[in-house]
């Protein structure tokens, strides 16, 4: 996985007024959930802010990254866990990060990439990717940048489901019956099949 550095500053005031002021000045309130736990067993949280510009390359990209969070000079390895957008303007309202514990698996969405020319496409069908990302659970250093699926032997009207896929060191979290990709019958393919059947 590629890494990306994001610089932020600790927030001393996390009240509504301060948050509103921060957003007005093109800042985004963020929370880092750390590896250490408090007395209730919950991750210790660090409230900080990042300029909107500083999040652009992390948020608006098909790639996944390990984030080197530089909060007032202290660097922490983390992953993007959750992001909230404004319902109208699509502005980034809030971002949650989770600190990476090298000994514990993390859950992350990884982009899917299809490879090969499917048999069904050669027969006139259309290849459709139903799930652009799959949720995986693994140690962060074995998570690939993308999950490659070989579709060469995928025939007309056939699908590949999550349960048919396996990757070394990764546990797929999505429902096993969920369809990842399919070769759909086009009108032309249907016509050809009907003619061949006569």
Automatic annotation (TrEMBL):
<keyword id="KW-0687">Ribonucleoprotein</keyword>
<dbReference type="InterPro" id="IPR029751">
    <property type="entry name" value="Ribosomal_L25_dom"/>
</dbReference>
<comment type="function">
    <text>This is one of the proteins that binds to the 5S RNA in the ribosome where it forms part of the central protuberance.</text>
</comment>
<dbReference type="InterPro" id="IPR001021">
    <property type="entry name" value="Ribosomal_bL25_long"/>
</dbReference>
<dbReference type="InterPro" id="IPR020056">
    <property type="entry name" value="Rbsml_bL25/Gln-tRNA_synth_N"/>
</dbReference>
<dbReference type="GO" id="GO:0006412">
    <property type="term" value="P:translation"/>
</dbReference>
<dbReference type="Pfam" id="PF01386">
    <property type="entry name" value="Ribosomal_L25p"/>
</dbReference>
<feature type="domain" description="Large ribosomal subunit protein bL25 L25">
    <location>
        <begin position="6"/>
        <end position="97"/>
    </location>
</feature>
<dbReference type="InterPro" id="IPR011035">
    <property type="entry name" value="Ribosomal_bL25/Gln-tRNA_synth"/>
</dbReference>
<dbReference type="GO" id="GO:0022625">
    <property type="term" value="C:cytosolic large ribosomal subunit"/>
</dbReference>
<keyword id="KW-0694">RNA-binding</keyword>
<dbReference type="InterPro" id="IPR037121">
    <property type="entry name" value="Ribosomal_bL25_C"/>
</dbReference>
<dbReference type="GO" id="GO:0003735">
    <property type="term" value="F:structural constituent of ribosome"/>
</dbReference>
<keyword id="KW-0689">Ribosomal protein</keyword>
<comment type="subunit">
    <text>Part of the 50S ribosomal subunit; part of the 5S rRNA/L5/L18/L25 subcomplex. Contacts the 5S rRNA. Binds to the 5S rRNA independently of L5 and L18.</text>
</comment>
<protein>
    <recommendedName>
        <fullName>Large ribosomal subunit protein bL25</fullName>
    </recommendedName>
</protein>
<dbReference type="Pfam" id="PF14693">
    <property type="entry name" value="Ribosomal_TL5_C"/>
</dbReference>
<feature type="domain" description="Large ribosomal subunit protein bL25 beta">
    <location>
        <begin position="106"/>
        <end position="185"/>
    </location>
</feature>
<comment type="similarity">
    <text>Belongs to the bacterial ribosomal protein bL25 family. CTC subfamily.</text>
</comment>
<dbReference type="InterPro" id="IPR020930">
    <property type="entry name" value="Ribosomal_uL5_bac-type"/>
</dbReference>
<dbReference type="InterPro" id="IPR020057">
    <property type="entry name" value="Ribosomal_bL25_b-dom"/>
</dbReference>
<keyword id="KW-0699">rRNA-binding</keyword>
<dbReference type="GO" id="GO:0008097">
    <property type="term" value="F:5S rRNA binding"/>
</dbReference>
């Amino acid at each position: 996985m590629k890494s990306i550095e994001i610089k932020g500053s600790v927030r001393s005031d996390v009240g509504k007024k301060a948050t509103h002021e921060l957003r007005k000045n093109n800042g985004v309130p963020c929370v880092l959930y750390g590896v250490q736990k408090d007395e209730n067993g919950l991750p210790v949280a660090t409230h900080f802010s990042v300029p909107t510009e500083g999040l652009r390359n992390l948020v608006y990209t098909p790639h996944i990254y390990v984030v080197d969070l530089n909060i007032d000079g202290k660097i922490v390895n983390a992953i993007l866990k959750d992001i909230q957008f404004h319902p109208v303007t699509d502005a980034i309202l809030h971002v949650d990060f989770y600190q990476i514990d090298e000994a514990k698996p993390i859950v992350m969405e990884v982009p899917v990439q299809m490879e090969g020319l499917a048999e069904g496409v050669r027969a006139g069908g259309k290849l459709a990717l139903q799930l652009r990302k799959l949720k995986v659970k693994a140690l962060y250093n074995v998570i690939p940048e993308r999950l490659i699926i070989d579709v060469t032997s995928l025939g007309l009207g056939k699908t590949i489901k999550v349960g048919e896929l396996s990757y070394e060191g990764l546990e797929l979290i999505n429902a096993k019956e969920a369809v990842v990709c399919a070769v759909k019958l086009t009108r032309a393919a249907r016509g050809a099949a009907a003619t061949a059947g006569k």
